[in-house]
């Protein structure tokens, strides 16, 4: 006989993390834990802004990708900046670049900001963010400001529109994508959500 779960039982399971995704794994070459452990640079810190996060997985790519890679993005939105940390591991290709795109889940969208770049795939003129790790995994940290927001004309975003960028983050209309030499369109992707999960 099948038992029905009460709302309280489901809420308790979610609170302790049952069924909430892959188990935490350590990022190669970096201090942050992909699963959101206490080693994360934003864990327990309050700078005064709103926290957002994304769990990056290959099955979130459009179309989906078969890869063992995983990643975690955590950030804090402040009045004039977004402080972020991106960790990933297990990429099958060499990382080429990473961005935040504007789009709802399961849809590809334009690049709003760069998170890291490489010599073969440099960021836009004036990009002062970090270089992507050479290995198939690692961690980068950085700060996004209005000057980093790119125009996505087809989606109504003008260059420098920090408020529009932040609105997309808060509404879940943005995703983080890590591109690799094997999967140029992206090897792992995660939709940005409010809070850290």
Description:
Strands 6-3-2-1-9 form a five-stranded antiparallel sheet, covered by helices on one side. A four-stranded antiparallel sheet has the order 5-4-7-8. The radius of gyration is 17 Å and the shape is globular. Residues 1-47 have low confidence and may be disordered. The protein is built from two helices and nine strands, in the order αββββββαβββ. With 197 residues, the protein is mainly beta. It has helices at 7-15, 162-170; strands at 50-56, 70-77, 82-89, 95-102, 111-116, 138-144, 174-180, 188-191, 193-194.
Gist?
This protein is mainly beta and 197 residues long. It has helices at 7-15, 162-170; strands at 50-56, 70-77, 82-89, 95-102, 111-116, 138-144, 174-180, 188-191, 193-194.
Could you report the average pLDDT, rounded to the nearest whole number?
Answer: 82
Return Rg in Å: 17 Å
Shape: globular
Structural class: mainly beta
Share in helix: under 10%
H-E string: HEEEEEEHEEE
Number of helices: 2
Q: Major sheet: size, sense and barrel closure?
A: 5 strands, antiparallel
Quaternary structure type: single chain
